[in-house]
Amino acid sequence: MYMENALENFEISISSATCLKSNNTIFSDINYTLKSGELLLVMGPNGCGKTTFIKSICGIQKLEEGAIKLNNVDISHGDSQHLGNFLYIGHKNSLNDSLTVFENLEYLCALDRSIQNNIKSEITRNLSFFGIENYKNYLVSKLSEGNKKKTSLTRLLLTNKKVWLLDEPLSYLDENGANKVLKLLNNHLIGGGIIIASSHIDFSVDIGNSKVFYMDNSL
Amino acid sequence: MYMENALENFEISISSATCLKSNNTIFSDINYTLKSGELLLVMGPNGCGKTTFIKSICGIQKLEEGAIKLNNVDISHGDSQHLGNFLYIGHKNSLNDSLTVFENLEYLCALDRSIQNNIKSEITRNLSFFGIENYKNYLVSKLSEGNKKKTSLTRLLLTNKKVWLLDEPLSYLDENGANKVLKLLNNHLIGGGIIIASSHIDFSVDIGNSKVFYMDNSL
Amino acid sequence: MIKTLFYKEFQNYFRNLSSIFLPLIFFFLIISIFPLLIGPDKVLLNKIVPGIVWITIIFTTLLSSNNFFKDDYNNGYLETFLTSDSSVEFILFLKIISCWLFTCFPIIIFIPLVSIFFNISMKDSFIIISTLVIGSPVLISIGIFGSALTLGLAKNSILVPIIILPFFIPILIFSASAIESVSSGTPYEMQIYILLALLVFVLPTMPYLLKYTLSLSINN
Amino acid sequence: MIKTLFYKEFQNYFRNLSSIFLPLIFFFLIISIFPLLIGPDKVLLNKIVPGIVWITIIFTTLLSSNNFFKDDYNNGYLETFLTSDSSVEFILFLKIISCWLFTCFPIIIFIPLVSIFFNISMKDSFIIISTLVIGSPVLISIGIFGSALTLGLAKNSILVPIIILPFFIPILIFSASAIESVSSGTPYEMQIYILLALLVFVLPTMPYLLKYTLSLSINN
Amino acid sequence: MNISKIANLKFFFTKTKNLSKFLGYLTFFLMLGGIYWGLFVAPSDYLQGESYRIMYLHVPAAWLSLQVYMIMAFAGFISLVWKVKIMEIISIQCAPIGAYFTLIALVTGMVWGKPTWGTYWVWDARLTSELILLFLYIGIIALYSSFSDKRQAVKITSLLTIVGLVNIPIIHFSVEWWNTLHQGPSVTKFDQPSMHISMLLPLLYMFVVFNLYFVAVLIKRVQLGIYSREKKSKWMEEYLNG
Ligand code: HEM
Ligand SMILES: Nc1ncnc2c1ncn2[C@@H]1O[C@H](COP(=O)(O)OP(=O)(O)OP(=O)(O)O)[C@@H](O)[C@H]1O
Ligand SMILES: Nc1ncnc2c1ncn2[C@@H]1O[C@H](COP(=O)(O)OP(=O)(O)OP(=O)(O)O)[C@@H](O)[C@H]1O
Ligand SMILES: [Mg+2]
Ligand SMILES: [Mg+2]
Predict the structure, then answer these.
(1) Which of B208, C192, E49, E131 is most buried (most C-beta within 10 Å)?
(2) Structural domain harbouring B75
(3) Per the domain annotation, does E103 fall within a domain?
(4) Considering only CA atoms, which of C155, C208, C175, C147 is closest in space to residue C54?
């Protein structure tokens, strides 16, 4: 059920989602429905469960109860067909220190079936969006923290996935970089995508169609 | 030359500091002098060399040329006597995933000779400053990103070191946590300490006696 | 896509082309340590050479599969990888194959040379090579499985070997028995068939087992 | 302070008390693999037991010193540690000692048991134990040095063994020669003295060498 | 930029261009002479006959395998302590040459071993430790090539090289500590004055020639090393263009 361009009726619904970790309830009974073009900004104090919540949507974190539905099909038992709609970028960058920026992106894109066209030229072209084109052949281990983040966010420009799951996408970025990310998010929403992002800065004001979900059940 | 309480004339001067990495000049000819009670806020785009600069002050990063002077004594060749004045907290947390929050702090404090009194009770008392007292016996691997940061920043409350070197101390912190850090910084300056910190958010307005150093020599 | 991924798994090893020779040098180092420890008695040495070769392969396997997924786990790649819509099992299969190709395989092709050093007959050397070719991919698979099992744990360098060594035993028994049979002139086909059966069973199922194990590990 | 740090180095190993038995189990696994590979010929086995014991110790050393500093390097602790005003050399010394105490030592104290298994005389077993007690801390130190050298590198599980095995050779030569001398009734004191000299030289200098190596590694 | 450090490399690169060429030709002809001397002029051995003549390759190569290592460690030490750039390059460029001499010593030793000992290889301490020296060289090269940052690589490998010095006395004295096959009858013959000079002289001559060969190759390799490190620098571009 890979949704090519049928964005119109695209919808994610999270119903009574509950998550346990080593017998602690991290969150319970969360209900949300997101339609094409909407952003859900997850906010809340450290340790409230933002990361866990975002991970549970794409199945990295298994839910104890509840369901994640994509157009009314329950996907919380993780089959890879539906995973085709999610792009997750978390706290960690998924970058291999001993490969270059270009190689890392190449291999990450090779895992992403929504990318059909010539990856190599696309990557080269898109590196300049965040201004890291000069680092193309740098080993990732030699990048600064912010440039690592920019490298991994460059995947947003390359993918055609419909749902973006972004965990603190603005961390470590300079002002210019952060603004570019916001621009990207806006574009994706305009294109009919869905975004679930966490942040400590409320950027929902800069974004067209957004809801803020304030989590607060820290220990 | 460990400066017990002689804070009055305390001074750090950085003169014509130049740093190379794999034959690339990261920064060159930086000159700054900081006196007791002053903060230097290092700002600039990603990859401009903030982290490298801060590391070079406490000798993690060797300088190619130039000197770091503590009360006119050149310390850039790293002898541990003078290192006794620096506390460095970088992007990475220095926390061991398989130890608990308490154990980690205990061992980090054991490395810090400026702490004389009973460490254990001090740690327990100070964990509540950032509101992480409930995580005291959690393994660090089970903490959220922000709480890891808070754990490592708790060292600021425990140490008596005069010079704090903080690389993006606000990253991953929630609003409350960030405000507490700013409060800490202010207190340290009032107590006659010196701080060199990097950030992408200009918090110098919230701090008494501060200079902003805008680096910009990215590739 | 597949080509890129294939290339990636190989590039990890290929980055320094010289590093394909490393397992070989390791092999020769181990080989040359034995005479030092056991004494230069030729008859004694010749008797235990097949054993030494197998021991070397076992240790190569232990060392190269130890922490096999650790880096990918730490930098978050494993999460991205396991929740991707590409063929996770196939890539895991590639990982096993390329690990074998760059650690065990270089050793195996140099066994004829070692045979000359130790005066081993063609026939014996042939059966050693055969058992190694069939057995070592299974060892590597088991080793990698062991490292997947212990992924969430703090560094413990000895735990994985302890977990997986018992699984090595069947392969060692049949291989040793095949080598023994050849030198004593009794039939050895049976043992080879059993080894082949193990290979044919383990290699295709391991990627599924690995995927399941890994997805348990990231969901902790 | 010192007490806390001492305790810390030990706690890393002690967290699971059961994990002191792991090196032991590893040892017995390796010991029991050899008869499988070499055949159950008693005379042959008895001859090579000292060799097997040493090989096991070597591999324990390789496995436990591999990536010795990796975690501390990745999480930034090494930077904090090396630029602290505490006695870095002393803590590094503690690290070496505790690594030895929890990997090699448990094996060594069980050698008398192994001796009974393989009918090794008291005298022989005593000299094996002596050479191990003197030699293995040196092996561990060298192994840890190897892992410090390769700290800045991408994972390469075979490189460290290749770098450090040549340094093991002297110790192996003198130990084997001492063991050989005892069983052939010739004087062995000379070899033991040389081993002792190596120990006395390596153990106190290694922390300084390590500190220097590590500070080169973090400054890249 | 520290001008003296750059000038150092530049000086070496520009001044030794012709020297290495000259040394190359010189060693070639001296080598021919040495081969003639060793193979045809020197008397044959009363015990080993003609096969001993491989000594004229084996012994100098074996000596150089040790000597080059010591030079490498010495250069490494200087580069670490006084940060002399040229020494960094010299140190690492010694490694392949040393490995090469070690290989020659091993191969010629094996070839010599067949007629004298009846086997190509025995596991005695001298032979094993020489083999280990080869592995040490290879380990050093492998470690160096594993680093992407070559300045860092030199520092780390220098450390390894210096620590590796402990193996040199062990190789040298191994025959005394472990009395086995190596160096049996052929050495005692040096004590006999009748054979002594006529065999020793060509040996010493070959040793000198091997040393010249080493220096010639080293200079060439160091030039290449300087080139690959400084090819982007200004002086190199100026030098190559003008
Ligand atoms: C693979 C086999 C061999 C290896 C690895 C080997 C290695 C060496 C080494 C490393 C040296 C230099 C020792 C030093 O300067 O301290 C040496 C010297 C020498 N080797 Fe060999 N060798 C081998 C075989 C032989 C054989 C078969 C003979 C003749 C019977 C021989 C005769 C000599 C002699 C005469 C010297 C010079 C003695 C001296 O330096 O005092 N070698 N060899
Ligand atoms: N080994 C290296 N070789 C060459 N360049 C390097 C090396 N290590 C780091 N760099 C470069 O040094 C520059 C400075 O890095 P640094 O981490 O100090 O930046 P930063 O200002 O802290 O950036 P950020 O805001 O992203 O944290 C970067 O451009 C980086 O790519
Ligand atoms: N294995 C575990 N067992 C018990 N609790 C856990 C485990 N792993 C994580 N937690 C807890 O789950 C909670 C949620 O963590 P999470 O990482 O989702 O927080 P977060 O909202 O992303 O915080 P931050 O803003 O700091 O990133 C934290 O309080 C954490 O301590
Ligand atoms: Mg989080
Ligand atoms: Mg930085």
Answers:
(1) E131
(2) 11-214
(3) yes
(4) C175
Q: Is residue A136 part of a domain?
A: yes
Contact: B92, D220; criterion CB under 8 Å? no
A171 CA to centre of ligand 5 in angstroms: 11
- The pLDDT assigned to E240 comes to 82
Q: Please tell me the predicted confidence (pLDDT) of residue D148.
A: 95
Residues of the domain holding E115 = 55-179+195-241
The backbone torsions φ and ψ at residue A213, rounded to the nearest 5 degrees and listed phi first, read: -115, 110
In contact, B199 and B219? CB cutoff 8 Å: no
Task: Provide the pLDDT for residue C142.
Answer: 96
Helices D159-184 and D189-218 cross at an angle (nearest 10°) of 170
DSSP secondary structure letter of residue B147: H
| Strands B11-21, B65-70: pairing kind | antiparallel
pLDDT in tens, chain E (242 residues): 455 666 578 888 888 888 888 888 999 899 888 888 877 777 776 666 677 788 889 999 999 999 999 999 999 999 999 888 899 999 999 999 999 999 999 999 999 988 888 888 877 778 888 998 999 999 999 999 888 888 889 999 999 999 999 889 888 887 776 656 665 434 434 444 344 677 788 888 999 999 999 999 999 999 999 988 888 788 888 888 87
User: Is residue A1 situated within a structural domain?
Assistant: no
How far apart are alpha carbons B188 and B170 in whole angstroms? 16
Pocket of ligand 1 contains residue E172 by CB under 6 Å? yes
The answer to whether residue B183 scores a pLDDT higher than 50 is yes
Q: Are the C-beta atoms of residues B14 and B31 closer than 8 Å to each other?
A: yes
Percent of chain D past pLDDT 90, that is, above it, reads 44
How far does residue A94's CA lie from ligand 4's centre (Å)?
15
Dist. CA E46–CA E48, nearest whole Å: 6
CA dihedral D68, D5, D202, D204 (to 10 degrees): 160
Q: What is the pLDDT of residue A78?
A: 64
Among the bound ligands, name the one nearest to the CA of residue A149.
2
What per-residue confidence (pLDDT) applies to E188?
36
Query: How many domains, in total, are found in chain E?
Result: 1
Is C13 an 8 Å CB contact of chain E?
Answer: no
Name the one residue in this structure whose structure tokens are 């730490």: C74
pTM score, two decimals?
Answer: 0.93
**CB of B145 less than 8 A from some CB of C:** no
In which band, very low, low, confident or very high, does the pLDDT at C87 lie, cut at 50, 70 and 90? confident
Tell me how far CA of residue A45 lies from CA of A216, B131, B175, E50, in angstroms.
7, 11, 8, 87
* Cβ E60 under 6 angstroms from ligand 1: no
Give the CATH number, domain containing residue B179: 3.40.50.300
In a domain, B86, yes or no: yes
Q: D 67-86 residues with CB below 8 A of C?
A: 67, 70-71, 74
- State the total domains in chain B: 1
Q: Tell the residue number behind the tokens 């450290």, with chain if given.
A: A46
Q: Considering the domain boundaries, does residue A160 fall inside one?
A: yes
- The verdict on a CB contact (< 8 Å) between C117 and E141 is no
Residue A132 tokens read as 């890291």
Taking alpha carbons only, the member of C52, C161, C152 closest to residue D103 is C161
Q: Where are the alpha helices (DSSP H) in B84-174?
A: 101-110, 119-126, 145-153, 155-158
State which residue of chain D sits closest to C44, comparing Cα positions: D44
Residue A4 pLDDT > 50, yes or no? no
pLDDT at A3 over 60: no
Cα–Cα dist B192/A116, whole Å: 60
The ipTM of this complex is: 0.91
